[in-house]
């Protein structure tokens, strides 16, 4: 079940993942506040047991831990998960993590009040069977009535227009230099899947160092995600646009049926 190529993709990306953001610490705080607001509104204004099942280097998990929640992180990449723990510790926060596939989460049933799956991670599962298995695994570790939070890219326009690239993004490195990130997309014949090259240009003295990694994604529409989540045993589904909920991507919230 584990996907070694995808794990290697994120192993290689983990050291420079923060450079995808203009200001990663600010993004951590903003995303944490937005997700914390959804959690407290749905489950009560108190700390909750939260699993971030695609935690990466901790972008969402650290923000939620800072908001007082008891957060556990898992990620397919052991390198990313280890960095998440270290980044949290550097901020005086506890964030236990483990390397695990979201399709086979290594926890007992009904352990968590909430499960977060953010940064478009679900779209990296490129078959219906994988998506169903992952959502079933998330549902299993949620208590009855627990909340699911899925952060997804808005793909409706991309599915119509099939872009070949995303605009380059210039960010600052910790030492004040500039880094450039861009994506090249190559669409499959089905019009739904695409291979993407994530390319980072990092300054090295008077020249640039190029890092390129390739993976495949499924451009899932909201209608497709809604159907998968409903079939997995969730109810009270609601989509929240960034303008509404303050989260940087469309966010789907749902509750596990009792």
Automatic annotation (TrEMBL):
<dbReference type="Pfam" id="PF13649">
    <property type="entry name" value="Methyltransf_25"/>
</dbReference>
<feature type="domain" description="Methyltransferase">
    <location>
        <begin position="50"/>
        <end position="146"/>
    </location>
</feature>
<dbReference type="GO" id="GO:0008168">
    <property type="term" value="F:methyltransferase activity"/>
</dbReference>
<keyword id="KW-0808">Transferase</keyword>
<dbReference type="InterPro" id="IPR029063">
    <property type="entry name" value="SAM-dependent_MTases_sf"/>
</dbReference>
<protein>
    <submittedName>
        <fullName>Class I SAM-dependent methyltransferase</fullName>
        <ecNumber>2.1.1.-</ecNumber>
    </submittedName>
</protein>
<keyword id="KW-0489">Methyltransferase</keyword>
<dbReference type="GO" id="GO:0032259">
    <property type="term" value="P:methylation"/>
</dbReference>
<dbReference type="InterPro" id="IPR041698">
    <property type="entry name" value="Methyltransf_25"/>
</dbReference>
<dbReference type="InterPro" id="IPR050508">
    <property type="entry name" value="Methyltransf_Superfamily"/>
</dbReference>
């Amino acid at each position: 079940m584990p996907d070694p190529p995808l794990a290697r993709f994120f192993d290689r990306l983990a050291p420079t993942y923060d450079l995808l953001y203009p200001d990663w610490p600010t993004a951590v705080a903003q995303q944490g506040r937005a997700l914390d607001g959804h959690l407290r509104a749905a489950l009560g204004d108190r700390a909750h047991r939260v699993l971030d099942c695609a935690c990466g280097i901790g972008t969402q998990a650290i923000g939620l831990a800072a908001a007082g929640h008891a957060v556990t992180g898992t990620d397919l990449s052991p390198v990313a998960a280890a960095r998440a723990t270290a980044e949290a510790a550097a901020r005086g926060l506890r964030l236990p993590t483990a390397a695990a596939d979201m399709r086979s989460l290594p926890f007992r049933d009904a352990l968590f009040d909430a499960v977060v799956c953010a940064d478009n991670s679900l779209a990296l599962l490129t078959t219906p069977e994988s998506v169903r298995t992952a959502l079933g695994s998330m549902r299993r570790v949620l208590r009855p009535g627990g909340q699911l939070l899925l952060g997804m890219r808005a793909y409706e326009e991309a599915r119509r227009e099939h872009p070949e690239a995303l605009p380059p993004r210039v960010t600052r490195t910790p030492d004040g230099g500039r880094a450039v990130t861009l994506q090249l997309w190559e669409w499959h014949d089905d019009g739904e899947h695409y291979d993407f090259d994530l390319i980072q240009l990092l300054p090295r003295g008077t020249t640039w160092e190029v890092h390129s990694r390739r993976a495949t994604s499924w451009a899932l529409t909201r209608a497709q995600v809604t159907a998968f989540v409903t079939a997995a045993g969730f109810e009270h589904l609601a989509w929240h646009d960034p303008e509404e909920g303050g989260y940087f991507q469309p966010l789907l919230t749902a509750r596990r049926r009792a």
